[in-house]
């Protein structure tokens, strides 16, 4: 990102990003370093499941803001390993929030559309009652509640269908399968908002700037099915000739149930930041162009 400014040149605000090696963390760190003194941390630095180690690292880093991206994100794996999912997504989130509370740091917790059961047909507002279907969603909801209990001024950002340049994602999977010579079959009965982690990182920055608290949804604008997402990816990559077929979720049974409709309302995000998120189509086009 070029030459980094000193802490004094940035106004002295210190930000700790946990899970910094993950897909979102790798976007947050360079973005926030443009304005803040950033400490990136991942499991090699400390394990959020260990309250003593978390307290010690947070106290030494002395951040003004903690963005907790540390998470167990294997949705299917969580069904067979609920203990680990809850230890990280719930217990770990609570430990980070408690450590932040001890030094007066603001806490930002990242959550998910999977806290909803997907039976709705209009975008979910932050005030809608969560009803997670699987272990992953339940563990993330438990994390939200632990953070809110510990830190009343915490910001909880719910997002969905993430992709980015660091790590595997749906776009890379589709482009890899496109060279297989087989007909691609993609589910067409799950609806959500594909979200570029670069845009999510920008939204988090803006929410912190306006000192937002409580739950805020943040995704790219608009929605589609996985099939429509895949078709857009192939078209943008110049692979219009690759055959692709829409199918139902029943054709691809998975260990964890998925919400059929998990679009999140962006009304509160727009009200707080004064900005409309970029459309999911434009965000995907940028990602594909940068590959």
Largest sheet: 6 strands, parallel
pLDDT < 50 runs, ≥5 residues = 1-10
Q: How many strands appear in the DSSP assignment?
A: 12
Distance between the termini: 19 Å
Number of helices: 10
- Beta-strand content: 15-25%
Question: What global shape is seen?
Answer: globular
What is the CATH architecture annotation of one domain?
Answer: 3-Layer(aba) Sandwich
> Structural class of the secondary elements?
alpha/beta
Q: Record the strand order, biggest sheet.
A: 2-1-3-4-5-10
Q: Give the helices and strands as they follow along the chain.
A: EHEHEHHEHEEHEEEHEEHEHH
Rounded to the nearest angstrom, the radius of gyration is 19 Å
Helical amount = 25-40%
CATH H-tier superfamily of one domain: NAD(P)-binding Rossmann-like Domain
Question: Which properties best describe this structure?
Answer:
291 residues; alpha/beta; Rossmann fold; 6-stranded parallel sheet; two-stranded parallel sheet; 12 strands; globular
Q: Describe it for me?
A:
The chain has helices at 25-32, 51-61, 75-80, 82-103, 135-150, 170-177, 197-209, 226-236, 267-273, 280-290; strands spanning 14-18, 37-41, 65-68, 106-112, 155-159, 162-163, 184-187, 191-192, 195-196, 214-217, 224-225, 244-247. It has 291 residues and is of the alpha/beta class. Helix 1 (25-32) links the parallel strand 1 and strand 2. Helix 4 packs parallel to helix 5 (135-150). Mean pLDDT is 95; it is low at 1-10.
């Amino acid at each position: 990102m070029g030459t980094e400014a000193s802490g004094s040149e940035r106004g002295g605000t210190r930000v700790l990003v946990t899970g910094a090696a993950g897909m979102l963390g790798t976007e947050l760190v360079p973005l926030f370093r443009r304005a803040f003194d950033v400490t990136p941390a991942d499991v090699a630095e400390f394990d959020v499941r260990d309250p003593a180690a978390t307290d010690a690292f947070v106290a030494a880093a002395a951040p003004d803001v903690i963005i907790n991206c540390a998470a167990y994100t294997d949705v299917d794996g969580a069904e067979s390993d609920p203990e680990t999912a809850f230890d990280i997504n719930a217990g770990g989130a609570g430990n980070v929030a408690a450590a932040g509370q001890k030094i007066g740091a603001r806490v930002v917790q990242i959550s998910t559309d999977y806290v909803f059961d997907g039976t709705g047909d209009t975008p979910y507002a932050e005030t809608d009652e969560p009803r997670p279907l699987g272990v992953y969603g339940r563990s993330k909801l438990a994390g939200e509640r632990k953070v809110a209990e510990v830190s009343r001024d915490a910001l909880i950002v719910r997002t969905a269908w993430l992709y980015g340049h660091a790590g595997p994602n749906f776009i890379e999977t589709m482009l890899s399968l496109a060279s297989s010579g087989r007909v691609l079959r993609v589910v067409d009965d799950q609806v959500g908002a594909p979200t570029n982690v670069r845009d999510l990182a920008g939204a988090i920055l803006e929410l912190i700037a306006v000192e937002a608290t409580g739950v805020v949804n943040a995704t790219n604008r608009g929605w589609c099915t996985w099939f429509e997402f895949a078709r857009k990816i192939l078209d943008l990559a110049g692979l219009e000739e690759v055959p692709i077929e829409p199918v139902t979720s029943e054709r691809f049974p998975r260990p964890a149930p998925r919400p059929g409709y998990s679009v999140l309302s962006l009304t509160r995000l727009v009200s707080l930041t004064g900005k409309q998120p970029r459309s999911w189509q434009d965000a995907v086009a940028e990602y594909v162009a940068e590959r």
